[in-house]
Each structure stands twice: as C-alpha cells, then as structure tokens.
Amino acid sequence: MNRDAFTTTPWQDGFNIRIPEKATVNAPFDVIIIGAGITGITTGLQLQQAGKKCLILEAHTVCFGTSAATTAHLNTVLDTTYPELIKKFGANNALLIAQGARKAIQLIRNHIGQYQIDCDFEEKTGYLYARNEKEDSELEKILEGMLTVGIDAAPSFTTPVPIPFTTAIRFPDQAQFHPLKYLSALIDQFLEAGGTIREATMVEQVEEKDGLQEVSSTTGQYRATDIVYATHIPPGVNLLHFRCAPYRSYVLGIRLEDDSYPDALAYDLEEPYHYFRTARHQGAPLLIAGGCDHKTGHEDNTEQVFRELEAYARTYFRIHSLPYRWSSQYYEPADGLPYIGLLPGNNDHVYVATGYSGNGMIFGTLAGRILSDLITGHYSPYADLLAPSRIKPVAGFANFIKENADVVKHFIGDRLSVKSLDVFAALGPGEGSVIQYDGESIAAYKDEQGKLFTLDPVCPHAGCLVQWNNAERSWDCPCHGSRFDVNGSVLNGPAQKALQPLGGV
Ligand SMILES: Cc1cc2nc3c(=O)[nH]c(=O)nc-3n(C[C@H](O)[C@H](O)[C@H](O)COP(=O)(O)OP(=O)(O)OC[C@H]3O[C@@H](n4cnc5c(N)ncnc54)[C@H](O)[C@@H]3O)c2cc1C
Predict the structure, then answer these.
(1) H/E element holding 285?
(2) Can you give the pLDDT at residue 24?
C-alpha cells in the first residue's frame, strides 16, 4: 500500500485494500466525505448506516495519510493532560473528553465484535513515568487530574520498559490494534451498506450551487447536501490553519535480541517525549519505539532525528534489527482540543474534523460519531466544546501568537537565508535543498541516478518557502504543514496545488 512518504510502516507492508470500481455517479449524494483515513471511513460508515447516501472521495488511495502511519494506541490518557483540560475548559468539560475517549474505544470494540474483525486488538495497561524531580511533580498533577475525571489510575513501582525512572503511574483499560486491518474491515462494511468510494480523486473546490454543495475534483464534479472535510487538515486557507500547528513524529519498528518486549504501553514525560509498545507482526513481536517530534519543516536533517531515536532505543534495548522506520504528520490544536463540527467561514453544510494531536485514532473515531449526529440532526454533547468556531482566547492565545510568528518569520526570513550555489553542485544522490540560483530560490532534488528535479519552492497555499525532508524525501512547508513529493505533487494539504516545476537537468 502507498502512503504519503518514502518510508514504509509495518501496517502497509504486504497489506492491500482494493476498492472496487463503480460506474460514474451523477445523482446527488446526501453526504460527500473528503479523505479516506480513520475520520472519513468512520464518518462514512456511521452516516451510511444511519440511512444517508455517502460518497468518500480520496485524493490518492484509501489510508494514504497518517492513518497508515499511526502507532495505533487507543488511549483515554491524551496528549493534552487532564490538569491542562481542567484548567482551560473546566472539570465538567474535561470529564466529557475522558468519557468521549472511552466511548471511542468502545465504538472500536463494538465494530470489532459486530463485524468479527481480526485486527490484533488487545487491551493493555498504560504507564507514564517521570525521570527527575520536575517530572515527578508534573506526574503527580497528571495523576490527580486523571482521578478527577474518573480515569482508573494509581502509582506504580514498576514500568514495562528497562528505562530508569523516579516515579510512575499505571492506568488500565487502554488498547492497541492494527489500524489498516481495522479500517479495511470498516471499508468493507461501508461498501456493503451501499456506500461509494472513489480513489485518485483530489478535491479542488467546493461551492454552493442551487442549494447543493458542488465538489470539483480531478475526476469531475459531484454534488451532495453536506460535505465533510476528513482531510486531517482542511485544504485552502482557513482560520483553522492558524489554530493548528503541523508536527512530524518518528517511529522505529525493532526486533530485539532478547525477549524484553513490553507487554504494556509506556510513555515518558520528556519534551519531546518517547513511547514504546509491542505489536505482533508477521508472526513475531515488533517493538514500536516513537517520539522525537518537531514542527514540520523546522528540522534541517530529519535523518538525524531517526539516528537520535535509534540511539535512545539502543541505550535501553538490545536491538537485533530495525526492519521499519517511518515518520508522519499530526496537527496540534492551539488550545489542546480538536476542532470537530462546522467549518468556519462556510455555510451550514460544510463540516470538518482536525487538530487531533497524537490521539487521532480516538478523536477520528469520536469525530465519526459527532459528525454523524450533527448531520442527521441529533444532539451531540460535544458540539459546543469542540466547535471549530469556538473562541478560547485565554486557552490558546500563547500558541496562536507563536504559530503566527512562525508564519511571518518563514514568509519573509527564508528568502534571505537560502544556501549558496555551491550546494546545487554538491547535492548528493537522494538529497534535496532550497538553493539560490541567479537571484531565484529553487527547490532542487537529485535522484539516485543524478537526475535533478527543480521546483519553485514557494508553497502555493500561503507563499512560505518549503524545506527538504531528507528522511521522507519530500518538500515540507514550515508554515502550515503542506507536503509535496519530488515532482511537486501534493502529499499533504492544506495546499491544493502542486509546487511548480522549473524543469529537470
Ligand atoms: C507517528 C504518529 C503516531 C501516531 N500514533 C497515534 C496513536 O498511537 N494513537 C492515536 O490515537 N493517534 C495517533 N496518531 C494520530 C493519528 O494517527 C491521526 O490523527 C489520524 O490517523 C488522522 O486520521 P485522519 O483520517 O483524520 O487523517 P488521514 O489519515 O491523514 O487521512 C486524510 C486523507 O485525506 C486525503 N486528502 C487530503 N486532501 C484531500 C483532498 N483535497 N481531496 C481528497 N482527499 C484528500 C489524504 O490523502 C488522506 O488519505 C499518530 C500520528 C503520528 C504522526
């Protein structure tokens, strides 16, 4: 299976999801869902089963985005801690989020039971551990917050990983699964219920016409009453691009010399953090070690990040081999909660779900339930709390300003700091860089055979300069996280247009 990157995840390896071709559909749909990751597929299934006629449009192939690159922990303990949620949104709302996370795991469990899905689902206990005094006191507050919102948690004198710690807590009722086995089964159910999926269909525009939403795409036009952007981040330029910051996160799939695979989920409190779990893959255990996150396009050498993660893992585990390594993208919301509901600046028929941080298996599943409730006219207890139009100036203000400052810096500053012409000649095979040539900035990549690919480095989304990601061989925009392959084609939005080619050499 393909995904939006050069590296391969264990989930994709040897796994295929085939979508049967259907005749062109001209009649209007009830709902068109744009994007076939966990959000789009779950939302499509919920709505189709609620009696809505649904079409899912996917720019590439199903699960091309982060859903094929997740590490697939199913947590009620989220990236935004409960003390933070209580402080920003109040104890009742934090409780609602904890219940939502539980509901999401239950919905996944129900799907697995109802459709007999064999997707390596396992219930696990989670461990969070501190490694110094500062983290000890942070952990104490986290535990207090968890107990306030009714999460079963307690101090622990052990962790499942051979990493020294000062204090630790344990919390049962977490889980893990194989994301593509799960989503593939949901796709089967969606199709069986009468839903339609069209791959290789990049949506370029949505306009209201004659009371319907008209979708223009690379395979033609489609119409529906309601639209859902399940694209991880909505395309185009929208308020949400200033409320969500794109991050890259790194993962290794490791075979160990010995049997010290953790039988639980383990997370530290470092900034950026590390985490560990074990998957069963091709008949043997595979240690999944992740972390080392950074803002997209803000790391000069992404290969080096993999090396750092590997060095960290080697410090504590006896590594036999490293069959997998990959990175992928997520979006950090300004105030710590996702944006699920009507897309600001549009009419009452255009919905979105984004800003999940590293909890998109949970929030993508919950979004399916929330959006289905909203579109079918049912009450959702999450509608106001997660509304994308919510104004939380106190909660998100610091981040909001920071993200904007970043945009301005890259918008103006990048053009002054590009590297010299020497780099153009010095590019090694498989390397890329933004260079200055004849007064122009050029995104240049040299393939293994020495062929040079040159692109205009100005991201068509908001005009920032892209940066080379050497690990995934992509051009990444540091402002809003758009990513492009070496030919300039869009890998991740919000950009909808390709980087312009300047010709090969
Ligand atoms: C390394 C990593 C590890 C993670 N681990 C976890 C974890 O353990 N647990 C957890 O809960 N979460 C985790 N997450 C987060 C989670 O994986 C994501 O939030 C989730 O997969 C997002 O799903 P999605 O369906 O919203 O987006 P995606 O899976 O990215 O799907 C969006 C789809 O939309 C398509 N698309 C985009 N634009 C268009 C367009 N214009 N027209 C048509 N189609 C379009 C894309 O091609 C893509 O297929 C992790 C994230 C990362 C990066």
Answers:
(1) strand 284-295
(2) 61
